[in-house]
Design a protein that fits this description.
Mean pLDDT: 95
Shape: globular
Amino acid sequence: MTRKPLPAIKPNTIEFETQALIKPTGFREYDARWWFGIPGHEKDPELNLYGVQALGEGLGTLMHEYDIEPKIAVGHDFRHYSLSIKQALTVGLMNTGIEVLDIGMALSPMAYFAQFHLDCPGVAMVTASHNSNGWSGVKMGIEPPLTFGPDEMARLKEIVLEGQSKPRAGGSYKYVDGVKDAYIADLVKGVKLKNKIKVVAACGNGTAGAFVEEVLTKIGAEVVAVECELDYTFPNYNPNPEDMKMLHAMRDSCLEHSAAVALGFDGDGDRCGVVDDTGEEIFADKVGVMLARDLSALYPDAQFVADVKSTGLFLTDPVLIANGAKTDYYKTGHSYIKRRSKELNALVGFEKSGHYFFNAPIGRGYDCGLTSAIAILQMLDRNPEKKMSDLREALPKTWGSPTMSPLCADETKYGVVDRVVAEYLKAFKDGDKIMGMNIRDVNTVNGVRMTLEDGTWGLVRASSNTPNLVVVVESPTSEENKIGMFREIEARLAKYEEIGEYNQKI
């Protein structure tokens, strides 16, 4: 198939069953994600199976362009359409001469592990991660443990949409047994808790439910499994540990079972959310600071990486300063933080979304929610006299928001952010005051992070995966200033007719 895919085709037509459909906006900064559709939904699909085949052919062609060994591990998450999408992707890969190693249903980190375990450079994981039912996508890489960045995605998009794929002979398919067991064995190797820690493991009926209880039990935890039964309709809540509905359900379970901690996993298992023993939801960047404190005591002068959505405590926390820890703030996105962590040989890279990247000697460099969970439980195990709430309360006080996501179409979101960046840069240059304070700094590495003289900051950026903007605010001085910063951003964004409703506000 070297035909150019069409950007839009009406379903229930002969064209939909004979032509490749790929909406161009599905090619994002570091992975691919489309609305595949579910029966009865009014939104038309952005991708069909012939489109997926064309994507596979494009990926195979790209591997040859990069002179990569033509071998790739493929996996899929637990959604009713993911297996068929993976099979269509496999056809495309085989058409371009790629040896496909099918590892079956998997977590994204299990697919990344397969690159090491099966000694193959390529990975393609069919998953929509935490997106709602009806979405699908592919996370891809050709250099373990890294996944694609903007350059690879831009070239892949060009190959696919321009019909530049080149058929080749030599493609093959093999289903590989045993990768799940090897992945779990790799996770628990050398790990045994000294203390019996009771943990709620919440999976929102996503793919992680097939893995979590076994892994945490093997390291010696007492596991209370919550919504771990696989159910792709997500009857309780969408498996997203940044979403307050999931966090509140975790809180309720933690209190009900008198657990030491509740850990929640997203749909493809590469993120971990945390609720402490008092039922307090701890945002992932604060958990990152707690882990950085624990690990920098074991590894003096440790280097960390954090994304621009994360708390300022990575730079100002006195314990981290005393331990000689250093943190580099970088672009939000699992591919960016993963790559930056490798470049700087960081011990861990942290994202506010809950993607953590543990490098040697702790992990293999990719984001894995189970590796994060084990690290959190080991932190508790090393501090048996303290509860999770004690570790949280020991942090310097800040007032931070959840990640808020006002709607903004993929076609317009980057343009809107560019205009917002320009507004804040002008305000900084002109010496404007916000909330009666001077602007201390404007960081534009990824959207705009604007900091006031008291350390209160606000971030506006475009989401890399969904048709949304991203808004985060934090203040080290007061709840009032946190809310004030949000009101400043909210009022500024209200001027843009391209921006729609928020998923949540403060």
